[in-house]
Amino acid sequence: MHEPEPQQRYTLEELEALSGVARRTIRYYIQLGLVERPIGETRAAYYTWQHLSDLLTVRRLTDHGLSLEAVRDRMRAQTADPAMEVAAPQPGSLRLHSHLQLAPGVSLVIDHDAAGLSGEQVRHVARRVLAALQPVDPDPADSL
């Protein structure tokens, strides 16, 4: 997909078609504060490339398994400090981590929110890491 023109204006129907997000969901995201309100009122209201960008970000993050609350936290953190990847966990918040045991005393920890990985992607990483750590049969010709 090519980069849209910053001054481009979109109707709700165009935004729905470009983002693949249903208009009812777009309105819900606006209500939650994930996407800004349209510019203007009633039928004259329009959306910009920033609305489209935000919608695509929400869609990408939710497709990776993040909750809408986690998406909101991440988007707020990036708006406040673009260098910050993930908002610091708040006291009492729950975070999903996968612990992959690699060897006795050695494990890989994956923070699902920070990594932005779906469950299937975490399983794929686990399979690849474990495969890479499989013992290799030594070739007698290689020994010194």
What does this protein structure show overall?
The structure is a single chain. By secondary structure, the chain is mainly alpha-helical. It has 2 domains: 12-80, Orthogonal Bundle (Multidrug-efflux Transporter Regulator, Chain: A, Domain 2); 97-132, no CATH class. Helices cover 44% and strands 9% of the residues. The protein has a two-stranded antiparallel ribbon. It is elongated and about 75 Å long. Residues 81-86 have low confidence and may be disordered.
Structure at a glance:
With 144 residues, the protein is mainly alpha-helical. It has helices at residues 12-19, 23-32, 49-63, 68-80, 112-115, 119-132; strands at 97-103, 106-111.
